[in-house]
Each structure stands twice: as structure tokens, then as C-alpha cells.
Design brief:
Elements lengths: L6 E6 L10 H9 L2 E4 L4 H6 L6 E3 L11 H13 L3 E6 L9 H10 L4 E4 L4 H8 L13 E5 L13 H7 L2 E5 L5 H10 L7 E6 L7 E6 L3 H8 L5 E5 L6 H10 L1
Parallel strand pairs: 1-4, 1-5, 2-3, 2-4, 6-7
Antiparallel strand pairs: 7-10, 8-9, 8-10
Helix pairs in contact: 6-7
The structure holds S-adenosyl-L-homocysteine (SAH).
The site of S-adenosyl-L-homocysteine has 25 residues, from helix 5 and strand 10.
Length: 252
């Protein structure tokens, strides 16, 4: 390792609107030597980064993900060469973003690093659709969960029954593909089939879309609207608040 080892910043980009970058994220993007990113920060933010300092460590041309080991090794290699590296992640770097694993890898390799929080899509996504994640009149908790797991598997780490019992808002990330599975689990757990559900696709991107339904109808809505990742699923009474504000939100 050279004496002048660089530094890695694990930076959250926020949900995609460049105005929702933190001041620190923006400053670091301007001053970094290299930006390692995937597609989640969105076209507007990525478009502001000069091509010659961007390295895409997201999905490769063949549709496969760049292995995490590659990204880990690349961060270390660049820092050891004295570079200032921004590892740019969508939303917040440690909310389902493998930021935790990357921190440990950097620490084990004695690479100086810093985490720069970002606005997570788990909160900004619903807000962009006029949905508050809590509401003092009727929701006192909110849970952020991954929908990526197969809910019928015994070893699923998400306990949908327990979540239904909280009576609070459930925000699901990576939850487009497995929507039929977990909405069925929540109904089985006794949740009202008329509970409002919203899907927010590409929240805060120029082509954001929102689709709404209920626990019973949302799978059909997803299919008829063709909702695709990245999207946030919000399950709970708060999703119904959208109807009360949408006219003003869209007129803004
Ligand atoms: N660290 C990120 C989440 C990474 S997991 C964050 O804090 O936001 C990837 C998932 O995030 C996607 O499958 C999707 O559910 C969600 N997501 C991220 N950005 C999004 C956006 N702009 N609109 C909708 N969903 C988004």
C-alpha cells in the first residue's frame, strides 16, 4: 500500500431527483476521482457525472449483476492507488444497499472510509406520491422490509404475520415481483382485504408512476399498469391519504 492511500465515501444519492442529493453528496461527486455506481441513482443524477470518472458496477450487459466481490476489490484497489472514491448508492447506502458489507470490507483492508447518508426511497417514494409513512391519527409505526424473499419459504426472514399484527404502515422495497406472495400472506394474517396499497415506480424520476389499489386488487393493478422495478410498495391506511392531497400535489 502506498503512503498516500485515498478514501472511500459510501454515498447515498437519494431517490433520484438531483435536488434531493445532500450538499455533501453533491460536493463529493464533484471532487471525486472515481464514482462507482449502479443504476439506482437514476438517469438525472448519473447524467451529471462526467463519463470519464463513472464506473458502472450494477447490472452488466448480459443482465447479470457485477459480483459484490468485484466492487469490494475495486474500491480497495482504487483507494490504495491514492484515489478519492465515491461509491454511489440509490437512496441511503445502508438501507438494503449492502453498505454494511462494504464498510466491513473497507475496515478489514484498512481503507479510510466515511458513510454519507442519503434520503431513502422508503420514505421519499411514498411522499412523492402524497403518502405520509406515519399518521398521528391512526398509525404509530412503520416497517421497512424487503419483498425479495420468497414468503412461502420457511426460512423467510420477513415475518409477514407479525408485520400485519403491528397495525402500522408496511413499506416494501424490492417488492414488485413477489407482490402476489406477500399480499396473500398479509391477507392470511387477517389484514383487511380493502387495506389501501400503492406502488410508486421510479419515485422522483422524471417518469415516476403511481398505481393504487387494495390488498385484494393490487396484483391486477400491477399487471394492468405494467409496474416494474424499481418501485416501492406501501401497505396501510396511509396509502389512502393520497386521494386527499393528490389534486394539490399534481397542481404544484
Ligand atoms: N438503498 C436504497 C434501497 C436499495 S434496494 C434506498 O434507500 O432507497 C432497491 C430497491 O429500492 C428497489 O427495488 C426499490 O424497491 C427501491 N427504490 C430505490 N429507489 C427507488 C425509486 N426512485 N423509486 C422507487 N423505488 C426505489
Amino acid at each position: 500500500m502506498s503512503d498516500d492511500v485515498g478514501k472511500v465515501y459510501l454515498v447515498g444519492s437519494g431517490p433520484g431527483d438531483p435536488d434531493l442529493l445532500t450538499v455533501k453528496a453533491k460536493r463529493l461527486l464533484e471532487s471525486a476521482d472515481v464514482v462507482l455506481h449502479d443504476k439506482l441513482p437514476g438517469p438525472e443524477i448519473l447524467g451529471q457525472i462526467p463519463e470519464d470518472k463513472r464506473e458502472d458496477v450494477g447490472k452488466r450487459a448480459g443482465g447479470e449483476w457485477t459480483p459484490q466481490e468485484y466492487t469490494n476489490a475495486r474500491m480497495v484497489e482504487l483507494a490504495e492507488a491514492g484515489e478519492t472514491v465515491v461509491r454511489l448508492k440509490g437512496g441511503d447506502p445502508t438501507v438494503f444497499g449492502r453498505g454494511g458489507e462494504e464498510m466491513v470490507h473497507l475496515a478489514q483492508n484498512e481503507i479510510p472510509f466515511e458513510v454519507v447518508p442519503g434520503i431513502t426511497s422508503a420514505i421519499a417514494g411514498p411522499e412523492a406520491a402524497g403518502i405520509p409513512v406515519t399518521h398521528r391519527d391512526y398509525v404509530s409505526s412503520v416497517s421497512f422490509v424487503t419483498g425479495h424473499e420468497d414468503p412461502t419459504k420457511d426460512e423467510s426472514a420477513v415475518d409477514w404475520r407479525a408485520l400485519a399484527d403491528t397495525g402500522g404502515t408496511i413499506v416494501v422495497l424490492m417488492g414488485v415481483g413477489k407482490l402476489p406472495g406477500y399480499t396473500a400472506e398479509l391477507r392470511k394474517a387477517g389484514m383487511d382485504p380493502d387495506t389501501p396499497v400503492a406502488l410508486i415506480e421510479r419515485a422522483t424520476w422524471p417518469d415516476q408512476r403511481v398505481a393504487t389499489g387494495t390488498l385484494d386488487t393490487i396484483v391486477d393493478v400491477r399487471d394492468s399498469e405494467g409496474i416494474e422495478p424499481p418501485a416501492i410498495t406501501v401497505v396501510g391506511e396511509v396509502a389512502g391519504e393520497r386521494d386527499r392531497v393528490i389534486e394539490f400535489l399534481e397542481g404544484a
